[in-house]
Amino acid sequence: MAQALAYLPPIEDPNLLVGTNTADDAGVYRLHDDLALVKTIDILTPVVEDAYTFGMIAAANCISDIYAMGGDPKLALNIVGYPGMGEPKTLGEMLKGGSDKAKEASVTTIGGHTFASPEVMYGLSVLGYIHPKKIITNAGVKPGDVLILTKPLGVGTIIQAMLMGKDDGIDMAPVIAAMTSLNKDASIAMRKAEANGATDVTGYGLIGHLVEMSEASNIGIELSLQKIPTHEGAVEILDQGIFEPGITMNLNSFSNRVDKGSSDSNLVNLIFGSETSGGLIIALPEERVEIFKREYTKDFAVIGRATAANSGRVTLAP
């Protein structure tokens, strides 16, 4: 994508506060001194069989980009790719799932666009509000900041096993619950804790988004492998040789900026895996973790630290 974007001329607009140059989660455009718009778009193929559940997951995934910037989502447009002979009821259930999840986020769905597609695709274009001086980007991380992760990893791997019919013994309930859970509470908590930076974990996996954060912030990242929360059974699926395509994609894209040291377990492969509607990575000074903890009542983990050395690289520690 970076190679393709290089063909575009730079945008010269002083009101564009966040564009494409730092690979952030959403764009931000200033309307006046006290108000800016934060805008994102995403679309994905089904990750579960139930249409209503997939609609909720897709909406939570798309709205998350606004939360990752510290913004408040307000409006959404549906984007739907659907087979011409597809069942209308299935489409309706998918859209209802998306609408219900958007409503939970206080987002009003005002229409959308549908196109013929050989496979089902669904997503949202989401518009939100943010104060121009309170934007939380992936480029604001400071050396010494600790890194918080708010959802466990392993969604892509578990879904791959499910699609192959090899998910025996895996409890899907917590996986579905994580994917349908909004990142709203984490976003509010990180604002109150005055976080320096944030991003969410989606297709590029934990490692990909950390690499982008390290490059945008001009810092290094030390990642503590054993502190990373994972969904039960995810590493064991990899131990069976079941690898979802996102792992290979992200290894090819980001492994040259990762210092693995002696770490060679399948946990390393898992952190390269794609996530759907993953959690937030939040960077803040260590003394503010207690503030975040008071405001955020769900589970989270401190998984690493930003460093002044090794800018643009992630170092794995056992």
Commentary on this structure:
Strand 1 (16-18) and strand 2 (27-32) form a beta hairpin. The chain has 2 domains: 2-130, 60s Ribosomal Protein L30, Chain: A (2-Layer Sandwich); 146-317, PurM-like C-terminal domain (Phosphoribosyl-aminoimidazole Synthetase, Chain A, domain 2). It is of the alpha+beta class and 318 residues long. Strands 8-11-7-12-9-13-10 form a 7-stranded mixed beta sheet. A 6-stranded mixed beta sheet has the order 1-2-3-6-4-5, with helices on one face. The model has no long low-confidence stretch (mean pLDDT 95). The chain has 11 helices and 13 strands. Helix 6 crosses helix 11 (289-295) and helix 7 (205-217) packs parallel to helix 9 (245-254). The chain is 34% helix and 25% strand.
Low-confidence stretches: none
Q: What's the architecture of the largest domain, going by CATH?
A: Alpha-Beta Complex
How many E strands?
Answer: 13
Shape assignment = globular
Query: How many domains make up the coordinates?
Result: 2
Strand and helix order: HEEEHEHEEEHHHEHEHHEHEHEE
> How many H/I helices?
11
Major sheet: 7 strands, mixed
Give me the secondary-structure category.
alpha+beta
Name the helicity range.
Answer: 25-40%
CATH topology of the largest domain: Phosphoribosyl-aminoimidazole Synthetase, Chain A, domain 2
How many whole angstroms does the radius of gyration measure?
Answer: 19 Å
Q: Look at the structure and give the mean pLDDT.
A: 95
Strand order of the largest sheet: 8-11-7-12-9-13-10
Distance between the termini: 32 Å
CATH top level of the largest domain? Alpha Beta
CATH H-tier superfamily of the largest domain = PurM-like C-terminal domain
Q: Which percent band covers the strand fraction? A: 25-35%
